[in-house]
C-alpha cells in the first residue's frame, strides 16, 4: 500500500500522458476534422485559382500565397476553437476531477493540455504543408512539361522560349527552401494564438466568449506595432490608455508577416526568422505563466 | 488569495512588458532595415480595400489580399476599364511593393494595352485626342515602372521592361533604342538575367545606329559559356555579330563570329 | 496518525460583494486508519465541499486538512489517495483498459507493473469481459466500477468515494459494497459520502452527519443505532400457547411488549433472492 513520499517533482511522463490524451481528444472532435477536410479541399483547389494570372511564373506566386493563406487560416481556426475548448470540456464533463485527484500538479495539467494542442497543430501543419508541397510540385511539373514540349512559356508579357534560365527560375520558385521558414513562422503564430486561448479559458466560462476574444486579440495583433508607435506619440489620455492596453497585452503579429516577403523571394535572414520565433516562444511563455497563476487559484 | 494572485500576475507583467517592447522594437527595426513587409492598415488603405479585404489584411493575409486585388485588376483588363485597372494595380503594389510581377505586368497593362485601346477609341472627338491619351498611358506606365525600380533596385525584370517600353512605345526610331539601351545594360548586369536580356542590348545599339558598340557587346557575350543556353540563341548572336563584322569591315583574321549559318526557327517567336 | 484529519476546516463561498455562503464551518474530522467512515448529510450539507478540500480542489478559507499527516494542499499527499467522484465521467473514447492505463501513468506507473495492475483491477471490479469496449458503451454501474478501478490503480492507502452506489441497481450496489468491505480487509481506509442511508449502515464503522456545513452527530454505527431501552428476540417454530407464555414472562419481569408479529425481510433481500432464483430457471434472450 502506497504512502506518500515527502516530496514529488515535476514529471515529463505525466506531462506527456496528458498531452497525448489531449491530442486524441481534439482529433475526435467534429470541428477538427471538418476544418482539416476544408483545408485539404482549398489547398488542392489553389491550382484552379492560379489560372487567372498572366505569367506562368505568377501562377507559382498565386499557388504559394493561396496555399500558405489556407494553411494559416485553417490552422488559426483550429488553434482558436481547440484552445477555447481545452479546459471548458474538462470542467463541463467533470473529467478534470479524477485527474487532479491524482498526484498531478495543476501546472503539469495545464502545460500538458497546451503541449497536446500545439503538438497536434504541428502535425496538422506538416500534413497541410505536404499537400501544399504536392500542389506546388504539380504546378512545376505542368510548367516544365510545357517547356519540355518546346512550347513557349508566357513569361513576362510576351512569349519566351523556355530557356534553362527560365526553367531554373520556375524550379527556384517552386522548390524554394525558404518556404520552410514561412511555414515555421505560420506555425509559431498558432503557438501564440493557442496560448492566448488557453489563458482566457482559465477564467472565462463560455467557449463563444473565448473564441471571440481570441479573434479580437489576433486581429489587434496586426495593429500592435502601429499602436505602439502611436503611444510613443502624443495622443489624448484616453487614447493613450487604450493604446497601452493593446501594446501591453497584445502580441506583435505583424512581425510574422515576413512570411509574404519569404514567398516573394526577398532576402529574409535565418537569424531574423529565429529571433521572430524566439519572440513567439517568449510571449507564449509569459501568457502561460499568467494562465498558470490563475489556474493555481481556480476553484474546480 | 486573490491578492496573491493579483500580485503574481502584476509581477509577471511588470517583468514582461519592457522585455516585450524591446524585443518588438528590435524586430521591427530589423524588418525596416531589410525593407520587408508593407504598409500597415491605415484609414486610406481601409477605404481603398473595402471591409472584407481590410479584414483579410488585418488577419495577416497581405499577400493573398494583394492577389485578390490583382484578380480584380485582371477583371478590369477583360472589361477594358483602364482607370479602375490602374487603381487596382496601384493598390496591389502598395500592399506588396516587392512583387515584381505586379509592377511588370501592371506597366504592360498601362503602356501597351490601355494606351493601344485609348489610341483607337472612337469616343474621343479627334485623332489628336486619341494620340494624347495614348501617350499619357505610355507615360503612366513609364512612371509606374520607375517607381517599381525605386522600390526594387536589385531585380533585372523591371529595368528590362522599362527598356522595352522606351524602345517600343515611345516611338522615336533613332533616339529610343539608345535611350532604352542603358536599362537593358543594367538588367543584363544582374547574374540571374536570362540571355534574351543580354541580346536586347546589342539589338538596341544596332537600331540606334551604334554598330561598333553593338559589336563589342556581342563579342563580350560570345565569350560566355555556350552550354547554358540552346544553340539557336547562340546562332542568332553569331548571325548578328557576323552582320556587324561585315558592316564594320573587320578583317577576316580578326573576326570572332563564324560565317552566316542556318539558324533554326524558334517556335512561336515573333 | 489519522488517515484524514481536519482542524477547524472552513470554507465560505462569496455570492456577491457583501454576502458569503457557508460551505463548511469549523469541521474537526478524524478518520482512523483502516476504518470505513460514512460522511452523511442532505444535499448542500457540505459533503462534496469536504471531499474537495481534502483533495486540494478547493483551498480552505480557514483551518487545515491532513492526509496521513501531510497537508492536503500538497500534491504529494495525493499519492496515498484514490478518488471516485459522483457520476464519474471519463474520456468516452477510451476503453476500460485504456482509462485505467491513463490514470496509472498519471501516477507514475509504467510497463509490466502497470499492465499487471490493470489485469488485477479489471478482475477485481468484474470488467474483464468489457475491457476493450469504449466507455461510451458502458452502463452506469460499469462506469462506477471503472471509476473504482482507477481510484485503486496506484494502491492508495485512503479511498474517497462520493455517492458510489447512486443510480446503480441493487445487484451492482451489493457488489460495490462487497468491494468496500474487501478494501477494508486489505488494510485500506475508506471515506464514503452517501445519502442512501441503509446501504451505508451495513458497511460503515463510523458515521458523521453534516448539516449546513456543521457536524451535528458522529459516532460508531452500532452505538448510534442501538435502542438501549429495548431488546428483541426473533423466534422460529413457537406455537401460540408458547408465545402466550413468553408474553407473560415479559410482563412478570417488569417489561412490556412493544411490538409483536412476523418480522419483515427487506425489499432488497427479496429482490436479490428472486433474481438468484430466476437465474437458475430462465436463460437470457430465450
Average pLDDT of chain B works out at: 84
The tally of strands of chain B reads 0
> Could you tell me how far the N terminus lies from the C terminus of chain B, measured between alpha carbons in angstroms?
82 Å
- Globally, the shape of chain B reads flat
Number of domains of chain C: 2
Q: Give me the number of helical elements of chain B.
A: 12
CATH C-level of the largest domain in chain B: Mainly Alpha
What is the CATH T-level topology of the largest domain in chain B? Serine Threonine Protein Phosphatase 5, Tetratricopeptide repeat
Under the CATH scheme, which class of the largest domain in chain C? Alpha Beta
Mean pLDDT of chain C: 86
Assembly form of the protein: heterotrimer
Radius of gyration of chain B: 26 Å
Give the count of helical stretches of chain C: 9
Q: Which CATH architecture of the largest domain in chain B would you pick? A: Alpha Horseshoe
Description:
The complex is a heterotrimer of chains A (300), B (270) and C (286). Chain A is mainly alpha-helical and 300 residues long. Chain A has one domain. The longest helix of chain A has 43 residues. Chain A is globular, with a radius of gyration of 23 Å. The model of chain A has no long low-confidence stretch (mean pLDDT 86). Chain B has 3 domains: 54 residues, no CATH class; 113 residues, Serine Threonine Protein Phosphatase 5, Tetratricopeptide repeat (Alpha Horseshoe), CATH 1.25.40; 54 residues, no CATH class. The radius of gyration of chain B is 26 Å and the shape is flat. The C terminus of chain B is likely disordered. Helix content of chain C is 36%, strand content 22%. Chain C contains 9 helices and 11 strands. In chain C, β10 and β11 form a beta hairpin. The longest helix of chain C is centred in the middle third of the chain and has 16 residues. Chains A and B meet through α3, α6, α8, α9 and α11 of A and α1, α3, α4, α6 and α8 of B.
Amino acid at each position: 500500500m502506497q504512502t506518500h513520499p515527502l516530496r514529488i517533482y515535476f514529471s515529463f511522463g505525466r506531462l506527456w500522458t496528458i498531452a497525448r490524451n489531449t491530442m486524441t481528444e481534439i482529433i475526435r472532435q467534429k470541428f477538427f476534422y471538418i476544418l482539416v477536410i476544408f483545408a485539404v479541399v482549398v489547398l488542392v483547389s489553389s491550382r484552379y485559382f492560379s489560372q487567372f494570372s498572366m505569367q506562368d511564373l505568377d501562377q507559382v506566386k498565386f499557388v504559394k500565397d493561396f496555399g500558405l493563406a489556407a494553411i494559416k487560416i485553417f490552422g488559426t481556426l483550429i488553434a482558436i476553437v481547440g484552445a477555447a475548448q481545452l479546459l471548458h470540456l474538462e470542467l463541463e464533463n467533470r473529467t478534470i476531477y479524477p485527474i487532479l485527484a491524482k498526484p498531478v500538479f495543476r501546472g503539469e495539467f495545464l502545460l500538458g493540455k497546451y503541449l497536446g494542442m500545439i503538438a497536434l497543430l504541428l502535425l496538422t501543419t506538416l500534413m497541410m504543408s505536404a499537400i501544399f508541397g504536392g500542389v506546388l510540385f504539380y504546378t512545376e511539373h505542368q510548367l516544365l512539361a510545357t517547356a519540355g514540349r518546346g512550347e513557349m512559356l508566357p513569361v513576362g508579357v510576351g512569349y519566351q522560349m523556355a530557356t534553362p534560365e527560365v526553367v531554373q527560375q520556375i524550379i527556384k520558385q517552386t522548390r524554394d527552401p525558404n518556404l520552410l521558414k514561412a511555414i515555421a513562422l505560420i506555425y509559431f503564430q498558432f503557438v501564440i494564438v493557442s496560448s492566448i486561448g488557453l489563458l482566457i479559458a482559465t477564467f472565462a466560462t463560455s467557449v463563444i466568449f473565448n473564441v471571440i476574444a481570441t479573434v479580437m486579440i489576433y486581429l489587434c495583433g496586426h495593429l500592435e506595432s502601429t499602436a505602439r508607435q502611436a503611444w510613443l506619440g502624443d495622443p489624448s489620455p484616453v487614447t493613450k490608455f487604450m493604446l497601452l492596453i493593446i501594446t501591453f497585452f497584445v502580441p506583435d503579429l505583424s512581425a510574422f508577416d515576413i512570411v509574404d516577403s519569404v514567398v516573394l523571394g526577398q532576402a529574409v535572414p535565418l537569424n531574423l526568422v529565429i529571433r521572430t520565433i524566439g519572440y513567439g516562444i517568449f510571449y507564449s511563455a509569459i501568457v502561460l505563466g499568467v494562465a498558470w497563476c490563475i489556474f493555481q487559484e481556480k476553484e474546480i | 488569495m486573490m491578492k496573491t494572485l493579483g500580485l503574481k500576475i502584476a509581477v509577471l507583467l511588470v517583468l514582461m512588458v519592457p522585455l516585450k517592447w524591446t524585443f518588438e522594437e528590435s524586430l521591427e527595426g530589423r524588418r525596416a532595415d531589410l525593407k520587408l513587409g508593407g504598409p500597415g492598415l491605415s484609414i486610406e488603405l481601409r477605404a481603398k480595400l473595402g471591409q472584407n479585404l481590410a479584414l483579410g489584411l488585418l488577419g495577416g493575409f497581405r499577400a493573398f489580399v494583394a492577389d485578390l486585388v490583382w484578380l480584380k485588376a485582371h477583371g478590369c483588363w477583360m472589361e477594358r476599364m483602364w482607370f479602375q485597372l490602374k487603381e487596382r494595380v496601384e493598390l496591389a503594389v502598395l500592399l506588396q511593393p516587392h512583387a515584381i510581377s505586379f509592377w511588370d505586368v501592371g506597366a504592360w497593362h498601362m503602356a501597351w494595352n490601355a494606351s493601344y485601346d485609348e489610341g483607337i477609341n472612337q469616343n474621343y472627338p479627334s485623332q489628336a485626342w486619341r494620340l494624347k491619351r495614348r501617350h499619357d498611358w505610355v507615360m503612366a506606365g513609364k512612371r509606374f515602372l520607375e517607381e517599381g525600380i525605386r522600390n526594387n533596385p536589385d531585380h533585372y525584370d523591371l529595368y528590362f521592361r522599362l527598356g522595352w517600353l522606351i524602345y517600343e512605345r515611345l516611338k522615336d526610331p533613332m533616339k529610343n533604342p539608345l535611350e532604352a539601351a542603358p536599362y537593358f545594360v543594367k538588367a543584363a548586369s544582374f547574374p540571374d538575367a536570362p540571355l534574351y536580356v543580354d541580346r536586347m542590348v546589342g539589338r538596341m545599339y544596332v537600331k540606334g545606329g551604334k554598330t561598333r558598340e553593338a559589336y563589342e557587346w556581342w563579342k563580350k557575350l560570345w565569350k560566355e559559356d555556350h552550354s547554358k543556353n540552346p544553340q539557336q540563341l547562340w546562332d542568332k548572336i553569331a548571325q548578328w555579330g557576323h552582320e556587324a563584322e561585315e558592316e564594320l569591315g573587320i578583317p577576316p583574321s580578326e573576326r570572332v563570329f563564324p560565317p552566316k549559318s542556318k539558324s533554326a526557327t524558334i517556335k512561336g517567336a515573333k | 496518525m489519522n488517515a484524514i484529519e481536519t482542524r477547524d476546516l472552513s470554507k465560505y463561498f462569496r455570492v456577491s460583494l457583501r454576502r458569503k455562503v457557508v460551505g463548511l464551518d469549523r469541521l474537526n474530522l478524524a478518520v482512523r486508519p483502516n476504518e470505513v467512515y460514512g460522511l452523511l448529510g442532505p444535499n448542500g450539507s457540505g459533503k462534496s465541499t469536504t471531499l474537495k478540500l481534502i483533495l486540494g480542489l478547493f483551498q480552505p478559507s480557514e483551518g487545515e486538512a491532513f492526509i496521513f499527516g501531510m497537508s492536503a494542499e500538497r500534491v504529494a499527499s495525493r499519492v496515498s489517495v484514490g478518488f471516485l467522484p459522483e457520476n464519474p465521467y471519463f474520456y468516452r473514447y477510451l476503453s476500460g483498459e485504456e482509462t485505467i492505463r491513463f490514470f496509472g501513468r498519471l501516477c507514475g506507473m509504467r510497463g509490466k507493473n502497470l499492465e499487471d495492475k490493470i489485469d488485477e483491477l479489471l478482475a477485481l471490479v468484474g470488467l474483464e469481459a468489457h475491457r476493450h469496449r469504449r466507455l461510451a458503451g458502458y452502463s452506469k454501474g460499469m462506469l462506477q466500477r471503472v471509476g473504482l478501478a482507477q481510484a485503486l490503480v496506484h494502491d492508495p492507502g485512503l479511498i474517497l468515494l462520493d455517492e458510489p452506489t447512486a443510480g446503480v441497481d441493487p445487484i451492482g450496489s451489493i457488489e460495490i459494497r462487497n468491494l468496500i468491505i474487501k478494501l477494508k480487509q486489505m488494510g485500506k481506509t475508506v471515506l464514503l459520502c452517501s445519502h442512501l442511508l441503509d446501504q451505508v449502515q451495513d458497511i460503515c464503522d463510523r458515521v458523521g452527519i453534516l448539516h449546513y456545513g456543521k457536524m451535528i452527530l458522529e459516532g460508531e454505527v452500532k452505538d448510534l443505532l442501538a435502542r438501549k431501552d429495548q431488546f428483541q428476540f426473533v423466534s422460529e417454530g413457537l406455537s401460540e400457547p408458547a408465545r402466550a407464555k413468553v408474553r407473560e414472562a415479559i410482563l412478570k419481569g417488569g417489561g412490556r411488549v412493544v411490538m409483536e408479529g412476523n418480522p419483515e425481510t427487506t425489499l432488497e433481500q427479496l429482490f436479490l433472492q428472486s433474481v438468484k432464483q430466476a437465474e437458475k430457471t430462465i436463460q437470457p434472450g430465450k
